[in-house]
Design a protein that fits this description.
By secondary structure, the chain is α/β, with parallel strands linked by helices. The chain is built from 21 helices and 22 strands. Helix 15 crosses helix 20. It is elongated and about 115 Å long.
Length: about 650
């Protein structure tokens, strides 16, 4: 019954466009009507020893005759100074001073006009009446505060250097507003307006600063108030909402800063200094995946872990996160010594107790792999080593097969031979219906680890043979397969483009912007899925925890991003206007490049995991023994630099359709 009445009342309020603050204002008006009269009646009552019966009739009659006029005057003055439009939850010394001066004005009016119109009243009546009114009017508005002291008068800013718009009229926005407008702010910035999507706050004020509308009014108010800076302080908003607001702000040409997250609000660290520059990652609009639980990292603790390609962008982040969770030993294996040295020095600084081994070599070198696995016996292998640059691999297709496919096979074989418990392959969405040799090679890598997983699960390890391109006394020329029972779990992790990684468009665009342009985009309609490096690594780590054998994990990467929009956003974030200060030119699709990437092949489907953003694609059925034989033949072809290598790959990977054929 009560709920029905409440819902009906809500509908009526909506019909008449009555907002919550209108109701609050009505109650405050009624309250003020009562207290401005009761305050002076209380003063009169105290004057006559708190006994109504002995109050002089002349004084009581004067009080009654003057009350209606005084009530109208007080309410009118309160409206004129916008006392009913302040958001009292964030009331500060400004509101306190406002009520104080209003009390002086109204008490002077009361003293003069009641004396002139009705006759002189006792002195205590004037003094205590004004005091009681001040306390009553102020008390209801500051009832949530225990104590509010007057602060030192704010040092006037002689010259406003930058005019600031704050987005967010919540706790964080109010703290930013007061920090910027405080006496301690010596940079001369001043907040001149606030934007908030809550329409209940529109037309009201915080510390004298107007709340001018929602996100749709940002453009209008930037021009109206001549805004130079926009500070976004909505830490609890969803990533999608932040992205939409950031994209709007990014079009204004203003300097933009954002409060990183809710942690600053909880820890009380909200100030103008806690704001950070907006990055391209902020514009993606998807909540990052951060797995920080023992179920994920439990298998890492006290394990010997090998990361191939450990000096690369993904590999190095893997090493950082693994190092922070107490592995028994971390082995970094990379062919590029400069990258390996950099991550080595970083880990030594940050994790001095870590048992760290850094080794140089190639995943194509069977003898080097055999030496490493036989000496260190890693429990877990993260295979991140790969050639990833699409156009370069189109020009050197055999190198793509040698490094990616043969390198993966040899590393996986060594993992099985020496009893590693898990092998996690870093794959890519370019492996889905590939149109370039790099994507086809990564699809072949997925098929290799799935073949290994299937053969091991069926106790057919003897059908897994070593691959090597040269024969000597170190290896058995008969290529005898594995005989001992093996329990290595193989999985692959498939994700999209990684912001900031080697080969990403973002570093390329930044260099072009720094050089004054032009910024080159291959096609106006080209789109890609993006994620950050920490997201990618979080997915890889969780895939290792979920591994049961043979899965390909796929991340729900949200909505794809147009590359041209990415370029425009980067230009704006750099302080320039696209196609005015920095030109955008279209260079045409590169060899093997698609307009869009896919997450699944037609024959694949998705299964859910505990994490709603991570899925398992159902494997495509193929003969693992035939695949191993085909890979062995493919190795011979690529080491012979066969010009028809793409045709051979097409025979093994049916979904591969080269763009230039």
């Amino acid at each position: 019954m009560f709920n029905a009445l409440f819902n009906k009342a809500q509908k009526m309020l909506a019909f008449f466009k009555i907002k919550h603050w209108h109701i609050v204002t009505a109650f405050l008006i009624i309250y003020d009507i009562i207290v401005v009269n009761f305050s002076y009646f209380l003063a009169l009552w105290l004057r006559f020893d708190c006994r109504i019966s002995i109050i002089d009739e002349r004084f009581f009659a004067s009080f009654l005759r003057f009350s209606p006029l005084y009530t109208v005057f007080c309410i009118a003055v309160f409206f004129m100074v916008r006392l009913y439009r302040s958001i009292w939850r964030f009331a500060s010394y400004r509101e306190l001073l406002k009520v104080f001066f209003l009390s002086i004005i109204t008490s002077v009016f009361h003293t003069v006009f009641i004396t002139v119109l009705c006759g002189r009243m006792p002195i205590s009546y004037y003094v205590f009446g004004a005091f009681f009114q001040f306390v009553a009017v102020l008390g209801i508005r500051f009832s949530y505060k225990l104590v509010l002291l007057l602060r030192d008068s704010r040092t006037p800013v002689s010259e406003v250097k930058k005019r600031v718009m704050v987005i967010g009229a919540g706790v964080a926005g109010t703290m930013i507003l007061r920090d910027i407008n405080s006496a301690d702010n010596h940079n001369g910035d001043s907040v001149v307006c606030i934007v908030d999507d809550n329409s209940n706050k529109w037309g009201r004020y915080i510390d004298g600063t107007p709340i001018v509308g929602g996100r749709e009014s940002i453009f209008y108010n930037v021009k109206k108030y001549d805004i130079d800076k926009i500070y976004i302080s909505i830490p609890s908003a969803s990533s999608a909402d932040k992205r939409d607001i950031l994209n709007i702000c990014n079009e204004t040409g203003c300097e933009i800063k954002s409060l990183p997250g809710i942690f600053q609000l909880i820890s009380g660290e909200v100030s103008s200094s806690s704001l950070k520059d907006v990055t391209i990652e902020d514009l993606l609009g998807r909540d990052p995946i951060n797995i920080q639980n023992e179920d994920t990292f439990g298998y890492i603790k006290n394990s010997t872990i090998l990361v191939t390609g450990g000096g690369g962008s993904i590999g190095s982040e893997l090493c950082r996160q693994i190092a922070s969770h107490n592995p028994k030993r971390l082995i970094i294996f990379d062919i590029y010594e400069n990258n390996a040295y950099e991550i080595q020095q970083e880990l030594i600084r940050n994790f001095p107790e870590l048992d760290l081994i850094v080794l140089i070599g190639s995943v194509r070198d069977s003898r080097r792999l055999d030496n490493i696995f036989s000496q260190y016996h890693p429990n877990i292998v993260y295979h991140a080593a790969a050639h990833k640059h699409v156009p370069l691999m189109e020009d050197s297709p055999c190198e793509s097969i040698k490094n990616n496919v043969i390198g993966t096979y040899k590393t996986a074989y060594a993992a099985v031979k020496y009893g590693a418990s898990r092998f996690i392959l870093i794959s890519t969405d370019k492996a889905v219906n590939p149109t370039n040799i790099m994507g086809a090679s990564k699809r072949l890598c997925e098929m290799v680890v799935q073949s290994f997983s299937k053969l091991l699960s069926e106790n057919r390890s003897e059908e897994i043979f070593p691959l090597y391109e040269h024969y000597d006394e170190f290896f058995d020329e008969n290529k005898v397969g594995l005989k001992a029972p093996v329990k290595t779990e193989f999985v692959a992790v498939r994700f999209g483009n990684v912001l900031g990684s080697n080969g990403s468009v973002v570093p390329k665009f930044k260099k072009q912007i720094a050089a004054g342009g032009p910024v080159t985009v291959t096609h106006p309609d080209i789109i890609r899925y993006f994620m950050t490096i920490p997201e990618a690594v979080s997915l890889v780590l969780e895939a290792g925890a979920y591994a049961k054998g043979g899965e390909i994990f796929v991340l729900d990467m949200g909505d794809p991003v147009k590359i041209v929009d990415l370029a425009k956003n980067l230009i704006r974030l750099s302080g320039y206007v696209p196609d005015v200060d920095i030109k955008i030119e279209y260079s045409g699709l590169r060899p093997g490049e698609k307009l869009y990437e896919e997450k699944l092949m037609d024959a694949e489907g998705l299964e859910k995991t505990k994490n709603k953003l991570i899925h398992i694609c159902k494997p495509v059925d193929f003969d693992p023994k035939a695949l191993i034989k085909s890979v062995s033949e493919l190795m011979d072809d690529c080491y012979n630099e066969d010009e028809n290598i793409r045709d051979f790959v097409m025979n093994i990977v049916p979904t591969y359709h080269p763009a230039n054929i």
